[in-house]
Amino acid sequence: MTPQLDSPTKLSNFPKPANIERAGRWFLKSGIQETGGGVARYYLADSSTNRAVSTEITGYTISAYTYLYSLTDDARYLDAAIRAASYLTQVAWDPSSRIFPFECPEDTQVQRQAYFFDSGIIVRGLLSLWRITGERELLEIAKQCGTSMAAIFAAARGEFHPILTLPDKLPLPCTNQWSRQVGCYQLKSALAWHDLYKETKEPDFLRWYEELLSQSLRTHESFLPGAEGERVMDRLHPYCYFLEAILPRSGSSEVAETLTFGIERVASFLREIGPQFARSDVYAQLLRVRLLADCAGASPLDREAAEAEATVLASFQSAQGDLRIRGGFFFAKRGDRFQPHVNPVSTAFGLQALTMWRQYLAGEMRFSTDTLI
Fold first, then answer.
1. What is the rounded radius of gyration, in angstroms, for the C-alpha atoms of the chain?
2. What parts of the chain have a pLDDT lower than 50?
3. Structural domains in the chain?
4. Are 128 and 63 within 8 A, CB to CB?
5. 3-state DSSP call for residue 337?
């Protein structure tokens, strides 16, 4: 039985959340969202520069803004989400290909690419805003993109090419890098189909999600470690995507067993590798999955482990005075030294995980995958 989906508890029900307010201020004031509405991949603190605007990161940031708005009723977050969505629908969207490019370079001679994974993240961001505003264009473009994902990325044996060139839509060869491979992590993108089915009741969307769910459940155990040494940490991040994406079916005994298995496997690698090299997004993702799996009755929470992960996660949030950094979450650290860039995705995952942890401690935790960034 699939758990009932509920809205997140209002943040005003809890003591003043300084760390969440700082993270929200970073999104609004740091310059990570540029004047045209697009959001940079990350901020390099050592060179004081943003990386290029990314459609995927802009989609993630819309989801972060709508989450913050749902918690606080602060209209600044809604306004920022609308600006980001306008960039995606008015600038980035390719109506002829019915897909979003990875980036939108000014040089028209640069070969553009489209990622299967990024497409689903963008669709989920647009849907998160559509649920608030009811702006029809958001739903229509989300539907078109979701349909194109199933058509143009399709490969053999129920798999999906990770990257296509545009406008010819030819697949790039897979490499050893996880994001350029077929894998169970792609199920996080397929959550877009699950969400589109909930909004439209069009059966193809649900069928595509269920088919990739089945494929991912069969193959996920081979994804980890998938590398050696510290590179395993980079694989924990996409494997957590897989765990997040099976949550809508947590009422299934197979999925519940997979969640328990996956949570412990990620936690074990994190304990082993974390003292040498740790990514903040992995701590946040693992904590979110723990809390949602417990809330769904699929996998009991190890409270001691969750508390330790929340403590470490909070340490990644910058307290420096520079507004380009303050309140954001550093991407990673080696030993006790943080890597010199602040990442929108890490910040979004971190603020959500810490909010969910506080909700759990207050006895107000609710199961929801709609708001999962």
1. 19
2. 1-16
3. 39-50+224-367 (no CATH), 94-222 (1.50.10.20)
4. yes
5. strand
